[in-house]
Amino acid sequence: MKLLDPALFRDQLEGQALGLFVLSNGSGLQVAVTNYGARILQVLTPDRSGQLDDVVLGYQSLADTVAARSSVGAFIGRYAGRIGGAQLSLNGQVHRLSANDGPHCLHGGAEGLRFKAFRVESVERDRLVLAYHFDHGEMGFPGALDLSLEYRVTQQPALEITYRACAIDQPSVASFTSHAYFNLNGSDSGSALDHEVIIDADHYCEVDAALVATGQVIPTHNTVYDMKLRKPLSEHLAHFNGKGFDDCYLINTQEVSDGGAGDLAFKRCAQVFAPRLGRAMEVWSNEPALQFYTGLNPNAHIGHGWGKSGRFYQQQEGLCFEPQAYPNAPNCPAFPLPLYQPGIVKNGKTAYVFKTF
Question: Would you call 322 a catalytic residue per the annotation?
């Protein structure tokens, strides 16, 4: 296992210094984050025998990260997922967004947050605080918005991601999430389809042929989307004709904790088990939905750059658990709109909790 070298991540983007920041809880958990897209590029955590492995996909250098043009490890905004037709209406005005997924806007547009330099506010051994200012009209979205983002590693052990966002001059909409790709057998161990996954959801969001949410909610019971029973992903995907998951679940509210998440319920969204090495992970969040992504085509690359092992990652080698607001909500009247009003701060929190068994 090779640790990432911070010297390979030093550069500038649009006058903002870039770097790599290594966080540690002092008891084995170590997380490396670059402020280019606020990307999680390395997570070291022990298996059942105490052996440390790197359990997220990532890149060896800033040059490789930039060249990949991917969402690997990034913090996503201004709106996670797809907005149909790359447009939204707010207060009677239509806003044309950046279309970067055919005619649709994906993950904030062609130059969304994943390709931006965050300002570094503070760095401690176990904590990193970053910030970004969205201009009015950036990628077509209305309203200026300030975002503060904290990464923190805890003794639990867990990686906690907390954000605070506030509209500045006029109402805006936003949906944020983490796009880390996890493989609990190790980032260079190949397919993650031996992982066993539980998602605590009784409903998922219907999508059209372009994977844009329609606004309809469908029960998971007695469908191939029912993930409430623990079993290998390979068994689930046997019903998908070789394709994978790219689906948004509406999370149930059992297993609720205050979690420091304010007024919104901090709930367990998913559990992941890797029997080969005895690692497990729980995903907790106060967001209402969870996008579960494996990649749809196991023969396709993830991004366009070399991974940490010196090869291209393939889809289904990493699993994404992306807590977020309802997908395509600005165009789905039945979905609650994640509206940001000027001067009113909204908080979000997600935790990836690591365990062994």
Answer: yes
Which two three-digit tokens encode residue 2?
């090779």
Cis peptide before 10 (omega within 30 of 0): no
**HEC states along 281-349?**
EEEEECCCEEEEECCCCCCCECCCCCCCCCCCCECCCCEEEEEECCCCHHHCCCCCCCEECECCCEEEE
Which residues are registered as beta bridge partners of 172? Answer: 340
Catalytic residue among 179, 195, 287, 317: 179
pLDDT tens for each residue of 320-342: 999 999 999 999 999 999 999 99
Q: Return the minimum-mean-pLDDT range out of 67-71, 130-134, 169-173, 260-264.
A: 260-264
**Catalytic hit among 138, 282, 287, 322:** 322
What share of the chain in percent tops pLDDT 90? 91
d(CA 6, CA 1): 16
Is 239 tagged catalytic?
no
DSSP three-state, residue 143: coil
Residues 294, 319 contacting (CB under 8 angstroms): yes
Strand pairing report for 346-356 and 279-285: antiparallel
Concatenated DSSP letters for 36-54? BTTEEEEEEEE-TTS-EEE
Question: Which one of 1.20.1050.10, 3.30.1120.10, 3.30.70.1230, 2.70.98.10 gives the CATH number of domain 6-356?
Answer: 2.70.98.10
Domain spans in the chain, listed from the N-terminal domain onward? 6-356
Instruction: In whole angstroms, give the CA distance from residue 332 to residue 84.
Output: 10
